[in-house]
Design goal:
It is built from twelve helices and nine strands. The chain has 342 residues and is of the alpha/beta class. The strands form two sheets. It has a seven-stranded mixed sheet, with helices on both faces. Strands 1-2 form a two-stranded antiparallel ribbon.
Length: 342
């Protein structure tokens, strides 16, 4: 169906649908000339609103988007004898209007499906792959953890890994610190060819939630990825085996948005030391959203005090209008740092 649309229509369709499935608050609605086109409306319905296409965004969000979309379609129509609104879109809106929609406060506390498009892994002939996650969009979830939503640093680190997968990830054993929703770990296991991935977090609730997101991305029966509790600053215990991780090797450590709180930096860098003792040749890549320059400088200083080599990895964020998925703010600085043992 998409092949019958003009290049401009396809681009706008892709952008809108991908933003919608990522539950973006502000969507780029297609131009009127496309919205009033019946074929475009059919493609829009099939890609975003038809049941079973992808895990659906929350009901309240879907209703808000459909209301605004139908209004824009109405405003775009020039001849009601020749043009109109798709019956499928109207039926979808009617169904939502008659359903039970939770209050705003309730909806904000509930987990919802969010789907991230990996546009950089796509091709002209195939739709790009995606990662669907069950996450909480409220800033701080239960027990004070921020790990139940995907932050922009994880999305940016993911883009860097997609661009450098052959040398960094393919065939390598990966450990993620502060995995949160598991976005980076799932990306490495499902799409970038890692041999084994351990998604770790210090929160029991976060680790327990990882299995749901593994399932959503068809990783539930695959032994190459696992969730594991790892509290920074505490000794790495072997569990059932005398050696941590059963003595298996690890090649690359990843962490996104793990340096936002100055109080946890000593424990984090202490864990770096434990991991370097076990795996002297590992590389550590940390993605940090620079909200407070002083806090990030304290992280760099802690690394230098432990005689770790820190290298700034240059990898710019695409301007918002050039992003094709995933979508994240381009004006907030995100620093990628490579850390190695001297």
């Amino acid at each position: 169906m998409n092949s019958q649309l003009s290049p401009s229509a396809r681009r706008q369709l892709d952008r809108f649908c991908r933003q919608y499935l990522q539950v973006e608050p502000d969507l780029d609605y297609p131009d009127p000339e496309h919205l009033r086109n019946d074929g475009f409306q059919q493609a829009l319905y099939a890609r975003a609103f038809k049941d079973g296409v992808a895990p659906s965004p929350p009901t309240r969000y879907r209703l808000r988007v459909l209301k605004k979309l139908t209004k824009k379609i109405e405003e775009s129509i020039q001849d009601w004898d020749e043009e109109g609104i798709s019956d499928d879109i109207m039926n979808c809106l009617s169904s939502l209007l008659s359903s039970s929609v939770p209050p705003e406060a309730t909806s904000a506390q509930q987990k919802s499906y969010v789907t991230y498009t990996l546009a950089s892994l796509g091709s002209k002939d195939q739709e790009p792959p995606w990662i669907s996650l069950l996450e909480s969009r409220n800033l701080v979830a239960a027990a004070g953890t921020t790990g139940l939503r995907t932050w922009e640093a994880a999305l940016h680190l993911g883009e860097y890994l997609c661009a450098n997968a052959q040398g960094l990830v393919q065939g390598k054993s990966i450990l993620e610190l502060g995995a949160g929703t598991g976005y980076v770990s799932i990306l490495c296991a499902r799409h970038l060819g890692a041999s084994h991935v351990i998604a770790t977090d210090g929160s029991d609730d976060v680790v327990a939630s990882l299995s749901d997101n593994f399932y959503l991305n068809e990783l539930q029966d695959i032994s190459m990825i696992e969730g594991k509790e790892l509290k920074w600053g505490q000794a790495l215990m072997g569990g059932e085996h005398p050696e941590w991780n059963g003595g298996r090797n690890i090649d690359l450590i990843l962490g996104a948005d793990v340096t936002y709180d100055a109080s946890v930096i000593p424990a984090l860098v202490s864990t770096f030391g434990d991991l370097f003792e076990l795996y002297p040749n590992i590389k550590i890549i940390i993605a940090a959203t620079i909200r407070n320059q002083k806090t990030f400088e304290s992280f760099l200083e802690a690394c230098r005090m432990n005689k770790y080599k820190v290298e700034n990895l240059e990898f710019g964020i695409k301007a918002a209008e050039l992003q094709e998925g995933p979508f994240y703010p381009h004006k907030v600085p995100i620093q990628l740092s490579l850390i190695m043992r001297s």
